[in-house]
Amino acid sequence: MMKDSHGQTCSGATSAALEGYEEALAQFHCYRGNPVAAIETVIAGQPDFAMAHALRAHLFLSGTEAAGLAPARESIALARRHARTEREKLHVVAADALAAGCFDDAAERFDDILIDHPHDLLALQMGHLLDFYRGQSRNLRDRVLRVLPGWDARRPGWHAVQGMLAFGLEESGDYVRAEAAGRQACALEPRDAWAHHAVAHVMEMQGRVEDGIRWSRERIPHWAEDNMMAVHNWWHLALFHLDRDEHDEVLALYDQHVRSGQSTVVLDLIDASAMLWRLHLRGIDPGAARWGELAAAWSGMVRDGIYSFNDVHALIGFIGAGRQDLIEQQMATLQRAAGEKRGNNAAMAMQVGLPLAQALLSFQAGHYADTVLRLRPLRYIASRFGGSHAQRDLLDLTLIEAAKRDGDLGLVQALSAERLHAKPASPIAQRYRMLAAAGRAAA
Fold it and tell me: Which residues pair with 305 in a beta bridge?
């Protein structure tokens, strides 16, 4: 049987099919091009290539969309039929678990693959994404560290390993090493959008606004075109401008890049909801047209309920648009998900998704004391429903604004102290601190 560039046996492959497979995989590592189309071309020419079917399944599952489940299951069945090696069979088992919503089981199966095959970059990337979707910051780092001894710069894909390590280190608070790894990855492969975004995360967490804007804008040619992470990286740039209170620039980036194509890709919609809500918290009205367009884009997924992180961001779109009908449907979906008997999303919905949704509804209704009551315990367990520290900051921002509107100046002062430790130059954190200090001095 043929072997790939890392010496891994690939059942049913030919040299031409392997070349196409590795190109599709390279696109996935950088989130560039159309790896689904690339691997489907490979499959059309070599339909008994097991890992080609496995890659197609993983690609559809990686987007956390209900619409991806049916094509993923088709590919899982074909991969199972053609898999001959233990590695290939474990890819099938992992994909099957993920399609069933068993995130933990899938993540462990990818780890099983990597123990014996540390150069399986597809298993590493899928496991890494699952660590991200589960909010597992330690394993985001450690999954990469476990395979690192078998890697060096001479191996193809080294940039992808460094990019994943960078994000894992950042989410673990090791910012210096994270930035170094991310910059090395981008130097090796400038189109590595994941590595670029890892460095942006470092700068976001450290409040390095000027560095973040410069890093993002200087590298636009590498990440902004033909890239599945383009919207997310535009979102990061908008966050830096938001930190400078440049609201007009934020809205311009939203209109021209975040929602210019009116994407219905869930990961893009999450960024749009998160940005409009941040503006809303600051008292900036994004306008009914923006909220309405976003709610319409989310509406087709209102009953999906496969990942609560998505559901909460959909709810934000419906709240902003004042769509009570969709709000009720989304809450019913979250409640249904919380009652499921199988899969990880039930716990995600029950422990974080549903309580957070209720807190957001309280905030919108002007019940700020209730919002504070609901959010304070959630902030310590919010990682359980996935996302990054930067994404989950939405919860903390809602909490501090609710405390301000409720007149709880002691809590505002305490929370602003937290923010200023990480971002001492943040204008909004300084305003919260000064408001609390002035209010308490006058009392």
Answer: none
Per-residue model confidence as pLDDT tens for the chain (443 residues): 789 999 999 999 999 999 999 999 999 999 999 999 999 999 999 999 999 999 999 999 999 999 999 999 999 999 999 999 999 999 999 999 999 999 999 999 999 999 999 999 999 999 999 999 999 999 999 999 999 999 999 999 999 999 999 999 999 999 999 999 999 999 999 999 999 999 999 999 999 999 999 999 999 999 999 999 999 999 999 999 999 999 999 999 999 999 999 999 999 999 999 999 999 999 999 999 999 999 999 999 999 999 999 999 999 999 999 999 999 999 999 999 999 988 999 999 999 999 999 999 999 999 999 999 999 999 999 999 999 999 999 999 999 999 999 999 999 999 999 999 989 989 999 999 998 888 767 75
* 287 token code pair: 């306008």
DSSP state of 82: H
Residue 327: both structure tokens together: 């709000």
Rounded Cα gap, residues 400 and 49, in angstroms: 53
For residues 49 and 17, is the Cβ–Cβ distance under 8 A? yes
The rounded Cα 196 to chain-centroid distance in angstroms is 14
Query: Which tokens sit at 244?
Result: 């400078």
Residue 168 CB-half CA count within 13 A: 24
Task: Round to whole Å and give the CA distance between 335 and 305.
Answer: 9
Residue 316: closest CA among 411, 381, 391 = 391
> What residues have CB less than 8 Å from 394, skipping those under 6 apart?
274, 277, 278
